[in-house]
């Protein structure tokens, strides 16, 4: 966004883990932060009750939050009588934005759209690699250390006219659909909040969840973590997946019954690419670490490394909009949280 010397700089406090601040803001982002906001970037709040932060919080009009921000409880908000807005330099705000924030009438924005991009990129890579059976090919080559006949080993592999089932038209789910358009794939969508007209605009065929599970070669999960989505893929629904199908989960581990999925994967009937699990860190004895048909990664699909700079600038864009009296590009509303991450 363009800057203006006449624009006011709202008093802003950073609330996150200090190491998250260091990862988010390089020198250029720090320069932009102090240009947009009246803030001390060296002061990072991790405890709203700490006496050392009382003066800064009392004068804060805006909070710039990140991973590690403590919950904004009623008691915490009492220390911030001038607070008007919360801008989150990450995705979900459910960990720290409470009902007390909505009761106060605070506005909230998130960089969730920016964080959805790397998750979608990871997902599309997982889908395409699954179709090519890259894990099988790599394992065979490693074991044989010689010529591998792909016509023999990988008969039936490939991404031509494969069917991909997208569960959830979230920001990430929509980005995945967009990124899949150049490929010769058939894309199915399950999302109870999407109309038929909207599905047509997205270029996908909307189906019931059981039909998606029984039809897709790859199923990718992008639904939010809600009481109604817990174990969305339970033992019965996992059993509907086609033999040799791949389940990709970059959303939330609770969407899948881990014990039921483990049994299917140990049997060799299914494949999986899992960036999230339940529990978040699997016990050391879990067979998922060693199964040849499982790619297990430690929750890295979201922003990391230089991708964190995208989150910082997305949040600063929102803070700048607030300072100029403009609406947020990525507003968060209380009603949205009932069916979103």
Structure in words:
By secondary structure, the chain is α/β, with parallel strands linked by helices. The chain has 14 helices and 13 strands. The protein has helices at residues 18-24, 27-36, 54-58, 74-78, 99-104, 112-131, 134-144, 150-153, 171-180, 196-202, 209-215, 235-240, 258-267, 308-323; strands at 12-15, 44-45, 62-65, 85-88, 107-110, 162-167, 185-190, 205-206, 218-221, 246-249, 271-274, 294-296, 331-332.
How many strand segments? 13
Structural class: alpha/beta
Spatial strand arrangement across the major sheet: 8-7-6-9-10-11-12
CA-atom Rg in angstroms: 22 Å
Tell me the fraction of residues in β-strands, as a range.
5-15%
Write down the overall geometry: elongated
Helix content: 25-40%
Low-pLDDT sequence parts:
none
User: Span from first to last CA?
Assistant: 27 Å
SSE topology string: EHHEHEHEHEHHHEHEHEHEHEHEEHE
Largest sheet: 7 strands, parallel
Number of helices: 14
Mean pLDDT comes to: 94
Quick description:
The protein is of the alpha/beta class and 341 residues long. The chain contains 14 helices and 13 strands.
Topology:
Layout: E1 12-15, H1 18-24, H2 27-36, E2 44-45, H3 54-58, E3 62-65, H4 74-78, E4 85-88, H5 99-104, E5 107-110, H6 112-131, H7 134-144, H8 150-153, E6 162-167, H9 171-180, E7 185-190, H10 196-202, E8 205-206, H11 209-215, E9 218-221, H12 235-240, E10 246-249, H13 258-267, E11 271-274, E12 294-296, H14 308-323, E13 331-332
Parallel strand pairs: 1-2, 1-3, 3-4, 4-5, 6-7, 6-9, 7-8, 9-10, 10-11, 11-12
Antiparallel strand pairs: 5-13
Helix pairs in contact: 2-14, 6-9
């Amino acid at each position: 966004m363009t800057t203006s010397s006449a624009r006011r700089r709202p008093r802003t406090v950073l609330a996150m883990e200090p190491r998250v601040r260091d990862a988010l803001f390089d020198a250029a982002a720090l320069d932009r932060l102090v240009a947009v906001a009246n803030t001390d970037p060296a002061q990072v709040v991790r405890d709203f009750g700490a006496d050392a932060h009382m003066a800064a919080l009392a004068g804060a009009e805006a909070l710039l939050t990140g991973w590690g921000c403590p919950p904004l409880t009623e008691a915490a908000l009492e220390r911030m009588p001038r607070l008007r807005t919360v801008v989150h330099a990450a995705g979900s705000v459910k960990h720290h934005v409470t009902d007390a924030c909505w009761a106060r009438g605070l506005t909230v924005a998130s960089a969730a759209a920016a964080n959805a991009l790397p998750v979608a990129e990871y997902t599309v890579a997982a889908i395409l690699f699954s179709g090519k059976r890259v894990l099988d090919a790599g394992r065979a080559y490693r074991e044989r250390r010689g010529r591998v006949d792909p016509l023999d080993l990988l008969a039936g592999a490939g991404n031509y006219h494969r069917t991909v089932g997208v569960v959830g038209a979230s920001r990430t789910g929509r980005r995945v659909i967009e990124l899949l358009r150049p490929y010769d794939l058939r894309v199915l969508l399950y999302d109870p909040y999407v109309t038929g007209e909207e599905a047509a605009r997205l270029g996908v065929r909307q189906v019931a969840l059981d039909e998606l599970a029984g039809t897709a070669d790859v199923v990718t999960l992008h639904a939010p973590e809600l009481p109604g989505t817990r174990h969305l893929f339970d033992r019965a629904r996992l059993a509907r997946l086609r033999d040799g199908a791949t389940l990709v989960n970059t959303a939330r581990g609770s969407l899948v019954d881990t014990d039921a999925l483990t049994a299917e994967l140990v049997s060799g009937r299914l494949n999986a690419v899992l960036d999230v699990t339940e529990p978040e860190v699997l016990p050391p004895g879990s067979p998922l670490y060693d199964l040849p048909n499982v790619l297990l990664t430690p929750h890295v699909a979201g922003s990391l490394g230089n991708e964190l700079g995208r989150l910082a600038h997305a949040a600063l864009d929102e803070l700048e909009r607030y300072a100029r009296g403009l609406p947020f590009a990525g507003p968060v509303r209380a009603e949205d949280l009932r069916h979103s991450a």
